[in-house]
Write a structure and sequence with these properties.
This protein is of the alpha+beta class. It contains ten helices and 19 strands. A six-stranded mixed sheet has the order 4-3-2-1-5-6, sandwiched between helices. It has a three-stranded antiparallel sheet with strand order 7-10-11. The chain has a three-stranded antiparallel sheet with strand order 8-9-12, covered by helices on one side. Helix 5 links the parallel strand 5 and strand 6. Helix 1 packs across helix 6. The longest helix has 21 residues. It is elongated and about 70 Å long. It starts with a helix and ends in an 11-residue tail after the last strand.
């Protein structure tokens, strides 16, 4: 059985004894356990063996690439799944919750009934997988770092092209093109380019609005490399910056710096969020920073842990997290600054090297 699945099964047995197998259906978790990307497939892990069930489109490549797991060619997924369940006399199967539709659950339950098995629909499997994925291997950290380096190279090449009259959509398109040229598999998410009043919307979609002198422009971007994501936000000024804009920018930067100083093993994520949030609120901007301070990054752009006011997560070595405070002033402008860090044995290492000095282009 693959190493990660061995660890998963050990973790599941600590969490619950009421299962005999685990069925992994989501694309991102299949990728995590097989290191093979496919748009369809199933991973079934019993206490003794693991199986990766794929159709003819992926079988040849998967049979060569996927190690320590039985790769099964499926004419139809139902037949192969039932064969394995019956072979191992499995009755109780843990099922993912978060990444599955009701229609898929109903279909799987109908299949399992034919084998006298049933699915356990608790959060146990999701919780165990999320826990494993939150702690990165050295190879995963290298992939995330490379993704960040790609994004930063693209960002540096993009900055000199920013000019009045360029639209937010043009800018987002150019950034994605540059990341692809630098080696990105894809953009980590839909790039955010928000200028002027649009910057006051944290997740604004790039529009036809054109850049104008005096605009603050918030750019939230990331690349994908070997399946792993990066995430970075910078806010720049076009032509000039007012005293108020500079004040807000410096407050956000100080809030981020204070939060980054708190990142270390054992730190409560809610406490780190509070450091940045309290600083912003005490300096006259209460209610102007309403999203979470940060999140984990890996095969997904949003993973555990969550750095938020409601989080119960505790930082551990080799977690990769973002720290992205912001101040958003309705009908005026917004500022967000985001770095990505890996938790070390005694603190944190910043994977983001792009300058945080206020750039006036």
């Amino acid at each position: 059985m693959a190493d990660r699945l061995n660890v998963l099964m050990d973790e599941l047995q600590k969490r619950t004894e009421n299962f005999e197998a685990a069925l992994i259906t989501s694309e991102v978790n299949r990728l995590y356990f097989t290191s093979f990307k496919s748009s369809a497939g199933l991973v079934l892990a019993t206490r003794d063996e693991a199986y990766f069930i794929v159709d003819f489109r992926y079988y040849g490549a998967a049979a060569k690439q996927v190690k320590n797991m039985n790769v099964v060619l499926a004419a139809d997924f139902k037949s192969e799944l039932l064969k394995i369940i019956k072979k191992h006399r499995v009755k109780k199967v843990l099922l993912e919750n978060a990444e599955i539709t009701l229609a898929e659950v109903l279909r799987l339950e109908a299949w399992a009934k034919d084998a006298g098995a049933y699915f356990i629909k608790t959060s146990a499997l999701d919780d165990a997988i999320n826990s494993l994925r939150s702690i990165k291997t050295e190879e995963e950290i290298r992939n995330i770092k490379t993704a960040q380096e790609i994004a930063e190279k693209a960002f540096e090449k993009f900055l000199p092209t920013i000019k009045a009259g360029m639209t937010e959509r043009e800018a987002a398109f150019d950034l994605e093109f540059l990341m692809r040229k630098e080696g990105a598999q894809a953009s980590a998410f839909e790039i955010i380019v928000a200028s002027g009043k649009n910057g006051a919307v944290p997740h604004a979609q790039p529009s036809k609005k054109t850049f104008a002198t005096g605009d603050f422009i918030t750019i939230d971007m990331g690349a994908v490399y070997n399946g792993y994501h990066s995430d970075m936000t910078r806010t720049v000024a076009l032509g000039e910056a007012s005293e108020r804009q500079r004040e807000v920018y410096n407050l956000v930067l100080k809030a981020q710096s204070r939060a980054i100083e708190q990142i270390r093993p054992g730190a409560l994520c809610t406490d780190i969020d509070a450091v940045a949030r309290d600083f912003i609120y005490k300096n006259g901007y209460e209610g102007c920073f309403e999203h979470a301070l940060g999140h984990g990054v890996g095969l997904g752009i949003h993973e555990k842990p969550s750095l938020s006011a409601r989080s119960k997560d505790v930082l551990k070595p080799r977690m990769v997290v973002t720290v992205e405070p912001g101040i958003y002033l309705k009908n005026e402008f917004g500022v967000r600054i985001e770095d990505m860090l890996v938790v070390t044995a005694d603190g944190a290492l910043n994977l983001t090297s792009a300058s945080k000095e206020l750039l006036i282009l």
